[in-house]
What does this fold into?
Amino acid sequence: MDKKDIIKLKSITISGFKSFDSDAHTMEFGDISALIGANGSGKSNLVSFFKMIGYLMTTTLQQFIGDQGGASSLLNFGPKKTPVLSAKFVFENEEVYDDYEFSLAHAACDSLIFTHEINSYHNKKLYDTPKQWTLPPGTKESGLALNVLKHKDYGPVKLIYKLLRKCNVYQFHDTSSTSKIRNKGYINQNNYLYHDGGNLAAFLYGLRENERNRPYYEKIVRHIKCIFPQFGDFNLLPDVRNENYIMLDWFMQNDLSYQLGAHQLSDGTLRFMALAALLLQPPENLPSIIVIDEPELGLHPSAIIELASMVKIASQHAQIILATQSPALLDEFLPEQITVIERDPISKSSTFKKFTEEDLKYWLEEYTLSELWDKNILGGTP
It folds into this structure.
């Protein structure tokens, strides 16, 4: 498929969700979108919003609400101030304009119910006005997801569902001794990489054992060696005591005599391995939108440059959204790829701010983007 034919996320508009007040806050997206901002500015809340969409598209919204501490925790300063949260997604290419919007209102038992849910589809070449599907209000779960699951052929509604369903959030922060990524996992859980990297060994095993996907496995290994020269290869074999399980075992470079385990990898190295597996997997397996929270955590500066390289490779086939605090990572991108999230001191709401290369033309003659961030020219500082 030609890249121009791929329908992509153009923008989202959020109001009433966590640190975003009831005004409409719109953020535009490209192939790469790097989010920067001070602690407490709202970056994590935007990541949380994307997580909510994942639950919404799997008809488990009420579980998400419960996990977050109830609807009061999701509504900006609680239901008395903000009784409704709403959002709109716009997807577009040269031929198609597709949007999905919904509103969720506070309800009994500190829950949320749908009061408004609409999908609009516009084929620019076939007709002048968009076709619109209004889904029934008053439900606790998304009518979009429920209808697609019930009716296999739901046309344009199915298209927007597939786009939102393939929007995945990843956070590889937990690399403790008890984390799933360091311990034994079920070998058949290898179709896709889990949000926490917990099935990394099984996922890599699945790539290596598939002849068509093996070149991607080898590419992942090469990138790991760039930041961890002592690494030779993974030793991915079913557990001899129970062949249904597998561990993330590995060998040192040029030494196959001694097997090492995931417990002998540093936190940063293990996180990089998960990032490499996510971003360098076969293009057809990539989620349409990949959201990664603080991918730089624990990485050496040279590994951050390698991370940026992998992001650029993956962005040829998927949209990548990064929430970062790393000046080194920021310098690997263009001004148009940066979104600054700030907390307005008057409204106490998170806001989005973007720049173009023209906006920063004279500054960039003498300073890098990270230096402009540090000098508070971009904003996004405490």
In short: The longest strand covers residues 111-123. The two ends are 44 Å apart (CA to CA).
